[in-house]
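Narrative of activities, Objective 1.

The group set out to show that a structural description can be obtained from nothing but a protein's sequence at a throughput compatible with the screening campaign. Below is one input-output pair from the validation batch, recorded exactly as produced.
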Amino acid sequence: MKHIHYLDEKAEEITEAGAKGIKLRTVIGEKDGAPNFCMRVISFDQGGQSPSHSHDYEHEMYVINGSGTAEVNGETISLKQGDIIYVPPNTNHCFRTIEAMELL
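Output recorded for this entry:
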């Protein structure tokens, strides 16, 4: 079992090409004995963005606060507090913020 406040987990700045104003906190993952599950809090500054990318696992994300857009396979989706988005495996996607935004 693990119990923490997410702000107690160290935030790592994402520095890959095309990333701007993103910090990532892995609050539950392999180091916690969860080989098939990962919970991350992704914090975007206002005007932040992720590069377009895909990977072999799915994303399920909840917008904790803020607003922005997700582009999934060329379709732009508006995001706001309380929204949930599912991105299937091997699907091109990226995120851009209108105001600072946190995703779980």
